[in-house]
UniProtKB/TrEMBL annotation:
Region (Disordered) location: 1-48
Ranges annotated as biased composition (Low complexity): 9-32
Name recorded for this polypeptide: F-box domain-containing protein
Organism: Leersia perrieri
Highest taxon, organism lineage: Eukaryota
SUPFAM superfamilies assigned: F-box domain
């Protein structure tokens, strides 16, 4: 006979007790269901109150979000159908409407030769925000037959492989603008001005002199740079002769008024100087020091940062640029510094890490991409093969 513990035998009193306990269980279940309905009703009420915001208020919030960052604007429109229908869609307007330009976003150079379109990236390209430090990964299969040449106002300038067409891409909305063929470039740029039928007034306004900035001279060792920082244009002078180096920063508006007042604070930002100059908010990147100028120290051959307040010059990060010996893993400083040099930024390379190699990807259509020795200086050139001749575009 099986053991009693495996038998389903209960005394009558126990069964009666169980019967008496079933009613509270049902009542408890009912109370839980009631609380669940009340909670869901409260959540629905809360969500409906946000969804039922007045259209004018939604548009006001949308304008402020868009002024901050177009990426946040896209997220704002994705909250609910009502907000999406009340606000303007960026799709189809990402290029022609400058409000949707991603000015503070840059394409991230991955390093190790992982250029946009590389098979290991599986069609994804990463971007980062110079002001917030946010990183976004975007799927852009377009790069399977395109090469990125430059980035302007957050838009990507591309070249298509099979016909050398130059195109403009908004990486978030997917909008594409095709430029006229390269064969029409010379014909469309000459003469420089057009005259009305009466022959009295030019169609294009004459150029206006804003300020004079002297050119760099080898004997003085001075170099001049213009950088946009917090809606201001700053003029930077760097002296490469003598140790320590001398770095000065001025506001362009002061120079236009004849005042030479050195700037000792740039709002906690860091200015990266190169072929292209960038303003980076130091609070978004812990390894970047605020109120500094980051540039290559020609004499000592390292990436330096000049502190405006103290006037001191220190290395910006570990590693020497001698022999391209930057260690891995790399600091974000080297990624940002590479963004200042298009010839390495668009090829998935990190400046001063590894030896410069020729651009051999898809060489059926493109040639160049590596520094060429010419007249004692390195000069970077891209050659695009058109149907009739080879044209230099940058």
């Amino acid at each position: 006979m099986p053991s009693s513990r495996y038998q389903n035998r209960r005394p009558a009193a126990a069964l009666a007790a169980c019967g008496r306990k079933r009613a509270p269980a049902v009542s408890l279940a009912a109370s839980r269901s009631t609380r669940r309905r009340r909670t869901s009703a409260g959540a629905d009420s809360s969500s409906s109150s946000w969804a039922s915001l007045h259209e004018d208020l939604v548009e006001l919030i949308a304008r402020r979000v868009l002024a901050s960052d177009p990426v946040d604007y896209i997220r704002f429109r994705a909250v609910c159908a009502r907000w999406r229908s009340t606000t303007s869609s960026p799709r189809g307007r990402g290029i022609v409407d400058e409000r949707f330009h991603r000015r503070r976003w840059m394409m991230l150079p991955e390093g190790h030769g992982l250029y946009p379109g590389h098979g290991k990236l599986r069609g994804f390209v990463r971007f980062f925000n110079l002001s917030t430090g946010d990183f976004v990964r975007v799927h852009l299969p377009l790069f399977r037959d395109h090469c990125v040449l430059d980035s302007v106002e957050g838009l990507l300038l591309l070249q298509r492989d099979h016909d050398s067409a130059i195109r403009l891409l908004h990486p978030f909305t997917g909008d594409i603008l095709d430029f006229p063929p390269l064969e029409t470039l010379l014909r469309s740029t000459h003469p420089p001005q057009q005259v009305e039928e009466e022959g009295t007034e030019p169609w294009l306004p004459p150029p206006r002199l804003i300020a004079k900035l002297p050119a760099a001279k080898p004997d003085t060792g001075l170099s001049y740079h213009l950088v946009e920082c917090d809606s201001e244009i700053l003029a930077i002078t760097i002296t490469s002769i003598g140790i320590p180096k001398k770095v000065s920063v001025y506001r362009l508006t002061d120079l236009m008024l004849g005042r030479t007042v050195p700037v000792t604070s740039i709002g906690g930002n860091a200015l990266f100087i190169g072929k292209r100059n960038l303003c980076v908010r130091s609070k978004a990147f812990p390894t970047i020091v605020g109120d500094t100028i980051v540039f290559v120290h020609i004499n000592e051959l390292y990436l330096a940062q000049y502190h405006l307040k103290s006037g001191t010059l220190l290395p910006a990060s570990d590693g020497s640029i001698i022999g391209h010996a930057i260690p891995s893993p790399r600091s974000i400083i080297y990624h940002i510094h590479t963004c200042c040099y298009r010839q390495e930024w668009n090829k998935g390379c990190i400046r001063y890490q590894g030896k410069s190699q020729k651009w051999r990807v898809k060489r059926k259509w493109r040639h160049g991409g590596s520094p060429h020795q010419e007249g004692g200086k390195y000069q970077q050139m891209y050659f695009i093969r058109s149907s009739s001749k080879q044209t230099t575009v940058a």
